[in-house]
Design a protein that fits this description.
293 residues; eight-stranded mixed beta sheet
C-alpha cells in the first residue's frame, strides 16, 4: 500500500509539475524587487522569487494553501516539500501555491534578514487578492517552517510600502519539523547563520526566535515533528506549542517516534499519515479558529 501511494504521488507530481511549469509566475510585478541590490535582469534564476499555482478550476472550499519548502535558508527543496505537497492538496480538493523564495544574501539584498519574509508576505497578499473571502493556510517545512512561522508572527511588520495596511496574517499555520528558535541549544545552526549571521545581536536572536514572538493573535497551528530529529530538534516544536498554549492559541502537535528530518509527506518508518491528520484538524476548526468540541 505504501509503495502504491508513493507511485501515485510521484505520478501526480510529474503531471502537476508539467502543467504548473507553464503557469509559473514571477512573484513581483515586472520583476522589480524592493530592497534588491541588483536589477532584476542581473539576478539568476535561483535568485528570482516565483510562485507556482496549483489552482483547481472549480474549487469551492474556503481554504487556500501557501506551501513553503525548506532548505536551511541555503536552498529550496521545492520538489518533495513543495510540488508534492501542492499535488496532494489538489488531490483532496484544495487549491495551493508553492513559493520559491529568495535566500538570504548580502550580495543581492539590502537586509538579508528580511528578504525571505518579504517574499512570503508578497505571496500571501497576492493569494488573498486572487481568492477574496477565502482563508489562507501557510504550510512550511524546516527553514520553510521558520518562514511560515515568521509570517504568522511578524504580519504586523510589512516589508514593502505596498504591503502597508494589508492583511498579512495567515488564518492557520502548519509547521513541519520547523526551525523555530535561534537559541543555540536547539536551533539549526545553518539556518541561523544563513539568516542572521554567525554572531547576531541579542535583538535579532529574540526577533527571529518565534517562540518569543507568539501572542494571542498568532494563528491556530498544527505542528509535526519526529522525536529522533537530530537536525532540527523537536524541542523547537515543544517550545512553540508551549508559547501558543500560554497565549490561548489553538494548537496540536503530531509526533513520530522515528523519522529524522526532511521526509516530507511520507515518513518511511511509520504508517501514520500526518497530512491526513492535519487536514482533519484544520477542517474541524470553527470560525474563531478553535477546534470543534
Amino acid at each position: 500500500m505504501r509503495l502504491l501511494t508513493l507511485l501515485i504521488l510521484s505520478m501526480l507530481t510529474l503531471q502537476s509539475e508539467a502543467q504548473q511549469t507553464q503557469a509559473m509566475r514571477l512573484l513581483y510585478q515586472n520583476n522589480e524587487i524592493p530592497g534588491s541590490l541588483r536589477d532584476s535582469s542581473e539576478l539568476s534564476d535561483q535568485e528570482t522569487p516565483k510562485l507556482y499555482p496549483y489552482v483547481l478550476p472549480e474549487q469551492d472550499k474556503e481554504l487556500v494553501f501557501l506551501v513553503i519548502p525548506g532548505g536551511g535558508y541555503s536552498g529550496v527543496a521545492i520538489a518533495h516539500e513543495g510540488h508534492d505537497v501542492a499535488a496532494r492538496l489538489n488531490q483532496v480538493g484544495y487549491s495551493a501555491y508553492v513559493l520559491y523564495y529568495r535566500l538570504p544574501s548580502v550580495q543581492t539584498m539590502k537586509d538579508k534578514r528580511f528578504g525571505p519574509l518579504q517574499d512570503g508576505q508578497v505571496a500571501l497578499s497576492h493569494i488573498r487578492e486572487l481568492h477574496a473571502g477565502k482563508k489562507i493556510v501557510v504550510i512550511g517545512f524546516s527553514a520553510g517552517g521558520h518562514l511560515a512561522g515568521s509570517l504568522s508572527n511578524h504580519y504586523d511588520r510589512p516589508q514593502t510600502a505596498s504591503l502597508s495596511g494589508r492583511n498579512l496574517r495567515p488564518d492557520v499555520s502548519v509547521l513541519c519539523y520547523p526551525v523555530v528558535s535561534m537559541d543555540d541549544e536547539i536551533t539549526h545552526k545553518g539556518s541561523k547563520n544563513n539568516l542572521i549571521g554567525p554572531a547576531p545581536g541579542a535583538n535579532d536572536v529574540a526577533l527571529f526566535s518565534l517562540e518569543l514572538q507568539v501572542d494571542k493573535n498568532t494563528p491556530p497551528t498544527f505542528l509535526m515533528s519526529a522525536k529522533d530529529d537530530l537536525t532540527v530538534p523537536i524541542e523547537n516544536s515543544y517550545r512553540y506549542q508551549q508559547a501558543l498554549q500560554k497565549n490561548g492559541v489553538a494548537s496540536t502537535l503530531f509526533t513520530y517516534d522515528k523519522g529524522g528530518h526532511g521526509f516530507g509527506l511520507i515518513n518511511p518508518t511509520d504508517n501514520r499519515d500526518w497530512f491526513a491528520a492535519m487536514i482533519q484538524w484544520i477542517e474541524a476548526l470553527d470560525d474563531g479558529g478553535n477546534p470543534a468540541i
